Amino acid sequence: MDGPSTISLSPLATSYTKTEGDTLRDITCSTVCHPECAYTWSKVGTTGTIRNNALLNLGQLSRQEAGSYICIATNPRSSVTQNGPTVDVKVIFGPNTALINPSNMNYTINENQPIITIVCSATCYPTCTFSWKETTPTLSSASDNHNLALSEVTREEAGTYQYGPDTAALSVISKYTVTEGDTLLNVTCSSHCWPGCSYTWRNVTNNAIMSRNRSLMFGPIDRYMTDTYRCDVANIYTPYTKTARSEFQLLAQYAPDVSIVQSTLTLTEGSTLILTCSANGYPSQYTITGFKQTVGTITIPNDNTEAAGVRDNISVRIPYNILQDTGLYTCMVHNNVKDIDGNLLQTDSTQIDVKVKPRIFLAEDRFAGPTGGQVSISIPIYSNPVFTNYGVQRYDGFNLIEDSKYKFTENDASIQTQFYGRYVTLNGRVLQMTIQNLTEVDFGEYTFWISNEIGSTSASVTLSARSIPSLPTQLNVAVLEKVPVFVWNEGFNGGYVQTFLLQTSSTSHEHLWTNRTSILETDNVYISSTGFYRVNITGLEVGHFVARLIAYNELGNADPVSFQPFEIIKISAKENINPNHVPVIGGVVGGSLGVVVVVVVIVLVFILRRKYTLNCSFNMSLSKKEDVDSNQLRNNADNAGYNAAETYEVVSTMKETPNYDVLNVGNERPDNTHLYTPLDESNSKSHIYYENVKKEDPMYTNTVLKNPVQTVF
Question: What band does 111 get if pLDDT is binned at 50, 70 and 90?
Answer without folding.
Answer: low
